[in-house]
Amino acid sequence: MTTVPVGPSRGGLRGLGGDALAVGLGQLAAFIYPIVSLPLLTRVLGVSAFGRVVIVVAVLQLLVRLCDYGFSVSAVRRMAVAKDEKDRSSVIFSTLLAVAVLWVTGVAILLAVAAAVPRLNNDFGLYLIGSLVIVGGLAFPSWLLQGLRRLRLFAFATALSRVVALLGLVLSVHQPGDIGWAVVWQFAPPMIAALIVWPIIAHRCVRWVRPSFAEARFALSDGRHLFFSSLAQSLIGSAPVVMLGLVANPIQAAHYGAAERFGNAGRGILFAVTDALMPRMVDARSSRGRGLGSPTFIMITIFALFALGGLGLIIVAPWFVPLYLGTGFDDVVPTTQIIGLALIVSGGIAVFMLDLNSQHRYFHTAAAMVVGAVVHLLILVPLALAFGAIGAAWSLVLGELLIVIILAVLRWRLQTTTPVPIDLTHRVAGNDSLDPNMKEPIDYDR
């Protein structure tokens, strides 16, 4: 079997730009899906049916986040420091086993809640269909190719899968009764990407290693703090739409959901670039890189991209949104501009979390995210009741701004505190042996 070595990538601006460009271009190519699907769905389904789709998708995104668990950071980092191809494969298959366990648990809870809550029960079939499509995409977690540093393949699969899904959407959604197909194609791209990627990497980059539940438990334990971060992000992202659907009406949910799609398009590209730079950030930290290869330069570059995206959305929203969405969505403009402001704020979250997580400071990022999510939920309900979609958008800005402040304070305190020597030995849950993927202690605080 021929294997491709995965080692540290080249430093400096060229390597950083190559990594970011590969993922960025792939995400831009994949951008064709939301560009075409959003106006198609708003026009074909109408405001009310589109609002139902937005609510269903928001709830199912919680399941997606549960299955991600934080592996987009923890698994990538473990693969980045793994000693050889066998160790990397062990990380891959133990993480996939953990993901499967999470999916089974999450689907059981989701369907039980959907059956019990009257406003969700009417769309029980949509939740079931969406859950089944999601499981097909679990074989293409973003962390896999990022950890293997196959970023060009990641970009290609991401773009091509979105194009295929878009064709399916155009061919199958023609009337409000086709909302089931709208949900299917929303979650189909990862499943399509898995079918593209695995025949390519199966015999070149991955060696079959039978996973054990002990290793899966270690994967869950290593990413547990990141899970709380991921859960908090899910609540911040999904709660406004769900809350508007419960306390207001599907029309307000549709207005917020349409505006959020613009922000999410930017977030999807920029957070994908940020996640892909985790191995490079680890390299920069471990080698104490300076200049264009320094952690500071990486952080400044990422935040500048978020700021440009947010400002662009604020500026173009007044003329672009009404033209783009069609009749019935004129009130989306101010909400979209507030979402643009939130995109700028989220750039602060992205850079601080990248920096802290690259140093294995998972607990600190999780604490900040959980506090911000709780505050966001507390202010969301009254603002959504009083001001509808606009109030929900402002609750997003305020919640994320609080997270940025907490992360900045934590980072400052950690930098000014003298590190205390700790036992850095990673052990598999349930026994005293070293984690098989860490052959020696790793100093995460270098």
From TrEMBL:
Database matches in Pfam families: Polysacc_synt (PF01943)
Topology relative to the membrane: Multi-pass membrane protein
Cellular location(s): Cell membrane
InterPro entries linked: Poly_Biosynth_Transport (IPR050833), Polysacc_synth (IPR002797)
Keywords of the record: Cell membrane, Membrane, Transmembrane, Transmembrane helix
Source superkingdom: Bacteria
TM annotation in the entry: 20-41, 53-71, 91-118, 124-144, 151-173, 179-201, 297-320, 332-354, 366-385, 391-410
Name the UniProt record assigns to this protein: PST family polysaccharide transporter
